[in-house]
Amino acid sequence: MAKLARKTVRNLTPYQSARRLGGSGDIWLNANESPFANEYKLQCDRLNRYSTCQPQELIQAYADYARVSAEQVLTSRGADEGIELLIRTFCEPNTDSILYCPPTYGMYAISAETFDIETKAVPLTEDWQLDLPAIRDSLDRVKLVFVCSPNNPTGNLIDRRDIEALLDMTADKAIVVMDEAYIDFCPEASTVDLLERYPNLVILRTLSKAFALAGLRCGFTLASPEIIELMLKIIAPYPVPVPVSDIAVQALAPAGLAKTKFQVLDLNANRAYLQAGLSMLDGVTVFEGYGNYLLVKFPDGDSLFNALWEHGIILRRSPVENCIRISVGNRDECEKTLAFIRKQLSQC
User: Fold this and answer.
1) N or C end of the chain: smaller count of CB under 10 Å?
2) Mean pLDDT, the chain, as a whole number?
3) Residues 26 and 330: beta-carbon distance below 8 Å
4) In whole angstroms, what is the distance from residue 217 CA to residue 241 CA?
């Protein structure tokens, strides 16, 4: 039956998510998940009815959290659906393009290719910042420019002045999509305040990381009311299951926000612990990180990754040579991971 599929799909290499890659072990620090499993109350008296497309209580709760108006918020099945909705809304198949800046999140390109949208890759500079001259030279037929900050997998923040320069450069030509999946770990770096000045700015958010709700699949798009209205024309009729909305509203209530703030402080402390411990090892480079993960360069990243994997410590390979991305877990997980790496490197 494969011959009946679109050629693009037959030739597509799917995104290699942490779950698809598998593994077997006791320590899972490969998917930038939170180690906290929080409890929520579930109500089942409305499951016989379809959900509201955009639950008002959820939209208002996130609008209040993000400090925007409800008309500037769209909720979807994770930020991944937000990526697809933007591509479907603004890009004509086999005509338009998206632009992204590797090394970065792989779903931008895969989502575009799925819909027969050309992709243009403009690599980040050596210090992992935007190459603005190269982007300017590549904007022909580009409708969407994807920028991740904090960037995955490098962990760094994109210079705010460069983001504003990019927004100016693309005014009336393309939309700049800021992926802020990890911004809750460094909220002061958000570009949400720029929404008032730049109608071509879109921001992607999620509850998967800092809110410890990766399994909920609840994301948000922040943009001008005009862009939100366009996206609502193509979103699925019932994109937010009732239990998802109920749990998300609880997470965004004062008690939920207080819990998230406490857990973010804990994870940031564990990140600092990992960074300090790894930085003391000979030949190891730990890159400054602002999310719930660190990118670390080792003398032989592949062999160390394999040793960790076989020992039941599941981390994430990186497209950056000899680099491993380590999600920040609880203190016990961080201590055991650091101890194994220290022991392994001492034997080399």
Assistant:
1) N
2) 95
3) no
4) 10
Lookup: tokens for 39:
């409890």
Which among 328, 54, 326, 62 has a CA at the least distance from the CA of 207? 62
Rounded Cα–Cα distance for residues 191 and 161 (Å) = 11
| H and E: helices and strands count for the chain | 12, 13
C-alpha closest to that of 159 among 203, 189, 200: 189
**pLDDT of 9 higher than 80:** no
Confidence of residue 3 (pLDDT cuts 50, 70, 90): low
Residue 30 CB contacts under 8 Å (≥ 6 apart), including other chains? 18, 21, 23, 314, 315, 316, 325, 327
The CA R_g of the chain, rounded to the nearest whole Å, is 20
- Which residues contact residue 168 at a Cβ distance below 8 angstroms, ignoring those fewer than 6 apart? none
Rounded to 5 degrees, what are φ and ψ at 133?
Answer: -60, -40
Can you read off the two tokens belonging to residue 262? 């406490």
In the chain, DSSP assigns E strands to 27-28, 73-76, 97-100, 118-121, 142-148, 175-179, 201-206, 219-222, 285-286, 293-297, 313-314, 316-317, 323-327
Q: Which residue has the tokens 């929080």?
A: 38
Please tell me what DSSP assigns to residue 174.
-
**292 vs 158, 177, 263, 272, 276, CA distance in Å?**
16, 21, 11, 10, 15
Q: What is the 3 state secondary structure string of 26-43?
A: CEECCCCCCCCCCCCCCC
On whether the CB atoms of residues 80 and 218 are closer than 8 A, the answer is: no
Task: Write out the two tokens for 332.
Answer: 């016990």
CA dihedral 79, 184, 123, 112 (to 10 degrees): 0
Question: What gap in Å lies between CA 196 and CA 87, rounded to an integer?
Answer: 23
Of 4 and 288, the one with more pLDDT:
288
Q: How many Å apart are CA 286 and CA 308, to the nearest integer? A: 17
The answer to whether the beta carbons of residues 59 and 213 sit under 8 Å apart is: no
| b/e burial code for range 303-324 (CB count within 10 A of at least 16 → b) | ebbebbbebebbbbbbebebbb
